[in-house]
């Protein structure tokens, strides 16, 4: 049986120190409507940390190998396709990107334009598709809406700031944990940012909108932000919950009266557990609306650091530090 190298986890789950290179992983084979990709680069996402720690509900098709976004070259096809062997692609998978080879549905592959590097291409699929989903499909964004992105310097919010601006947002607000991150977000197109260590972001948002509030809120924080999200929301506002980094169990005393009085919709969402048809629709939206803007430079994919995948422990440690602004990418060497 053919084998390959992949990043594995000692004992199945654990801290950063449990990550190691395993040279005896079975090489996958493409089935019908699938392609075998020789990976050039893969992007890190916070779900990878959670999966490594055993705190993420991995879908059955995800497998044990981490990683969902990648760039690479098609080396094999399970059936006839619009793609061919040798095509340079990037895309989204349910798992398995921390490896030399990955099998992906051809429906989730995107041809890599020559203007994009392998590293930039590997940093697009998960974050930009997630941001598109949160803003448009779940958040029901309309031109002229005010939008609030929490964790503003995270890769998803970096994408979201740019998507909201291009789609005609009236104002784009962010929260982040340092003035440096706030400045970074404002340079990307955010109207105003708030350092949650020292600013009252609820008061700031309401003041900047003459009391109207935000129409669409995208939150990754959870417990610490829930009451504030209710208070900062506009009438008929949408709150999209993508993660719960501060905890998922809410404090006693959360006032849901605002949820009723403002007719708010508070909806959780997770991209990885969606079926292929749903993900394919988002892939098509990305290709139609965002890909040309990557090519002409309108949309930026800031990269914090590029690692050799042999240094995967350092890459995970950097993401855990919460100091990064933009994507962390690994090159498969």
TrEMBL record:
Q: Which UniProt keywords apply?
A: NADP, Oxidoreductase
Q: Does the keyword NADP apply?
A: yes
InterPro entries according to UniProt = ADH-like_C, ADH-like_N, ER, GroES-like_sf, NAD(P)-bd_dom_sf, Quinone_OxRdtase_PIG3
Highest taxon listed in the record's lineage: Eukaryota
Q: Does Oxidoreductase show up as a keyword for this record?
A: yes
Q: Which CDD domains match?
A: p53_inducible_oxidoreductase (cd05276)
From the UniProt record, which GO molecular function terms apply? NADPH binding; oxidoreductase activity, acting on NAD(P)H
In this protein, which residues make up the domain named Enoyl reductase (ER)?
14-330
Q: One matching Pfam family, short form?
A: ADH_N
User: What name is this protein filed under?
Assistant: GroES-like protein
Which organism is the protein's source?
Mollisia scopiformis
